[in-house]
UniProtKB/TrEMBL annotation:
Keywords: Leucine-rich repeat, Repeat, Secreted, Signal. Its main location: secreted. The keyword Secreted applies. PANTHER family: LEUCINE-RICH REPEAT EXTENSIN-LIKE PROTEIN 3-RELATED, LEUCINE-RICH REPEAT-CONTAINING N-TERMINAL PLANT-TYPE DOMAIN-CONTAINING PROTEIN. Residues 1-23 form the signal peptide. It holds the Pfam family LRR_1. The keyword Metal-binding does not apply. One of its GO terms (cellular component) is extracellular region. This is Uncharacterized protein At4g06744. It is found in: Secreted.
Amino acid sequence: MGSFFYLTLTIFIFLLCFHCVCCLNISLPPLIPDILKFLDERLALVYPIIQVFKNTITLDPLGITSTWVGSDICQYKGFYCDHPPDNLSATALASIDFNGFQLSAPSLDGFIDQLPDLALFHANSNNFAGTVSPKIANLPFLYELDLSNNNFMGTFPSVVLNMPGLTFLDIRFNSFTGSVPPQIFMQTLEFLFINNNNFKLTLPDNLGATTAFYLTLANNKFTGPIPKSIGNASSLIEVLLLNNLLTGCIPYEIGFLKKATVFDAGNNRLTGPLPCSLGCLESVEQLNFAGNLLYGKVPEVVCGLGNLVNLSLSDNYFTQAGPICREQIKRGVLDLRKNCIHDLADQRSVKECTEFFSQPRSCLRPSSTFNIIPCGVQPTKPPPRRGSRRKLLVSYAALSRNNRL
């Protein structure tokens, strides 16, 4: 039975190689001189897939593919084996980690979509191009997909909507364009990184349906207001919406994000007062609304948040700051530069502030909502001083092209 299998495999390799030479117009190395012995038949079946992909690689500056020889696929650099969920006595190719390999290839089609036992694929900082094959939806075990910092293009890879087992999606730093399907926020994702592309979309009302812990939409062209439904996204820990084209007023429902440690909507076009409900963000450490069109008084209840490390409100049009906020400025926690509080240093000119307030400013929601404090907290003094804390923030790491998440 074993010899029959390897004879069949040899014939399959020959036919596959013949097809590649004739139809794909690529050159292949000589066929393996002897029949290879594989640890498991599952590894034997993916061997020709790997070899064909190897020969589509046009640049390999680190010599990675020089290790992709012989039958011991589990020792190939970047390839990892494990027991597949459907047969714990078998050995299969379970994971691929190409992070930082700097490989160049015109496409991944015909490669990862042909690896039936693949559970993880990470390929940050390579030069893979083309589009994402819809066939990857046929991979039953794939739950982590990282295509970040490559040269993929086209529309959002909607194939991921047909992958209910996917929990990690990272497509940042590519050239994807167009809209993002609202259904992505209905997926059971825990990590969603789509920053630094060219996506254009009014944030959908179902944004709050996301189950993500980490949501990074930064550095795109998202428009419209932050949906009120965001308050329903109770699992959110870090949220990055910075450097988009968001408008409207900040919804007080953000104050319901009890687990959030980071909320960053800096450098947008948000306007209106800062909601007092943000004072209920009991876990928040980084809160950034700098570079917007916000005005009014900075709520003391926000400045009094006990875990704050950084509250960035610079480059707005705030006109008042109370004693708790002023103490936080002295501590280096609160940044209120370039506002309209003229007894503080480094503010906008009177002329600039007058011109801003000469235009009517309003929000569609009743002004009373900005004073709602759902948790009922009322700080009367600044929070205790905290030592300098350096904490790894996953979402901010996603803003660096070469960071591996």
